[in-house]
Request: fold
Amino acid sequence: MVRHGWPILMAILLWWSATGAILWLDRFRAGSRGRVMIGATAMLALALVGLRLSAHDESPWGVHLAFVSALAVWGWNEIAFLSGCLAGSSKAPCPVGSTGWNRFGRGLGAVAHHEAALLLSGIAVAALCAGGPNRTGLAAFAILWAMRVSAKLNLFLGVPNAPHDMLPAHLAHLGSFFRRRAMNLLFPVSVTAATVLCLLLSQEALRPDITDADAASATLLAALAALGVIEHWFLVFPWRAETLWGWGLPVDPATPAPEPHPLHREPHDGAAFEVSIPPTACGVSLSTVGRQGAAS
Reply:
């Protein structure tokens, strides 16, 4: 029980606390964000050192160090993104009626810097883990990246519960690229693939002949994949981020309220939805105000 219970508990606590901490940090006023990024960059430097040291450490300690270090590298990217330091070249909302590749190109431009930073971070993680037997850090970063790409594509294609409330005011324009619809064809593929990955990793972790280090690695990665599946389901079922991260979403009267962006209307249900992002919205959880009108 301890062999698998501790890694599962550790993954859940890190996921919950790190997400809340990032949301809380990105509520700082614009003048304080530079200091936040300095602190985050110091954390990044320590994480890169941790990845290098753990790459040749096949003990359970090395596995946990690699996992935490990978999450810290990912956390730096999230802080840089939500603070607005690394988002995209375009800050314009998606024009109503924009479709197809035009909408995709505009959306990519809005997050291009963030995507480039993630790619460079992934290359750095792979380089630091190269040549060592402990690939937990690289695997963790790869799972986080795959889950993030999947979530972004699903938001772009359309989900019932887009997390507008988790966008800070200075990134409110990104909400205009979210589409609200009952389902898209990618979602079941994403959830199924992530669930299969979780099951395969769990099966590996439960092998009777596996070493303690390999069991810890497989369990941590399985838990991370399971959390990714849960986050995908958050896009479908109605929920509020305050339920899990209310402590990371403080009210900041100095933060200006963004202009509301209309969601793309989906003709299949004849419903019109309108979303406004309150001044307390930050990063991941949102108070979505939906209004369903009569079929046009």
Notes: The chain is about 55% helix and 0% strand. The two ends are 57 Å apart (CA to CA). Strands lie at 261-262, 274-275. Residues 2-275 form one domain.
